[in-house]
């Protein structure tokens, strides 16, 4: 029986639209998804798949050129696959963030944006700086008594 939901989303770890036509065509025809959300590469991309011509096209990669990106989900000839960026520093990618996806049932559109997190290396360097500062503070405070530290600071003024 046909699926009657306004939006049909597939959550998946691996890319679907980059597979062979022999796999993609029956999969897309059976499930008729509007959107496929995946997270395998840890990099942000939006890919459109033309069901008639069986052609993939990358619409956005790594970042969005505008604040919100809008997809028309009313056109049954296109399926969109969104690769969600990682939000973890451990993945080793430079651009991290969270995708916010808003589905509008009246206009049958999807609006998405990326909430970027701080870059990996500056954040790690800041943590390193705080760690070294805390370590120096602990060493100095354990070597000297409180009275000695107060006297030392008074002489430095």
Automatic annotation (TrEMBL):
<keyword id="KW-0472">Membrane</keyword>
<keyword id="KW-0812">Transmembrane</keyword>
<keyword id="KW-1133">Transmembrane helix</keyword>
<feature type="transmembrane region" description="Helical">
    <location>
        <begin position="124"/>
        <end position="144"/>
    </location>
</feature>
<protein>
    <submittedName>
        <fullName>Uncharacterized protein</fullName>
    </submittedName>
</protein>
